[in-house]
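dude i think i finally got it to work??
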Amino acid sequence: MGTTIPEAGGLSEDRALLGRTSTAERVADILRSRIADGYFPPGTRLSEDGIGGALGVSRNTLREAFRLLTHERLLVHQLNRGVFVRVLAVGDVLDIYRTRRLVECAVVHELGEPPYPLDGLDRAVAGGERDAEGGDWKAVSTANIHFHRELVALAGSDRTDELMRGVLAELRLAFHVVDDPRALHEPYLVRNRAILDALHAGDRTAAERLLADYLDDSRERLVAAYSRHVDAAVPDGRTAP
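look at this
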């Protein structure tokens, strides 16, 4: 039996975000955020009629948004079945971490002389710690993603920011399948703080070493958890109206 997905009426709240200049890119932004938040879990079939009606956009606009998100590897089109939120393979998770290590460590390695603009990282770390105190582990996951986006933003490169936005969005597809978010995210709160402290101290060499170890450990833990739970956690045939 398929799992029931929340009614598309909740999605209609996002209609205001489209403004008067509704575009496929803006629809894609909304759907990307909803996928990242777990509103549309991996394996969910996306209904053109339901989503198009909720957002008040044409079928052609919605199909273009689907095409954009398929290009970003968040959706997959299955012939004669429709469009689904992608379910990652273990190999996909490994590849995501290879990309993260190449990009994130290079950003830290190439930082110039301190001080560095760390306000965004400060907010992300403090937010994650605050969310953990409140037991909101979904919010901790979001704060952790923000930490890594802010870290990459230190490069001052729009292209790198765009690349990592897609990579980290894919990563969250794996997070949503793992059934113990606290065990997955709690160990890295203190490690985020340690990386931030090293950058505040102007020691980018230490920050890079801490980051590399962090990513290696995170990869091993996530792959182990994902391998155990992916088959049981993602039922087939779910539909988002």
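The beta strands are 45-46, 75-78, 82-85, 239-240.
im so relieved honestly
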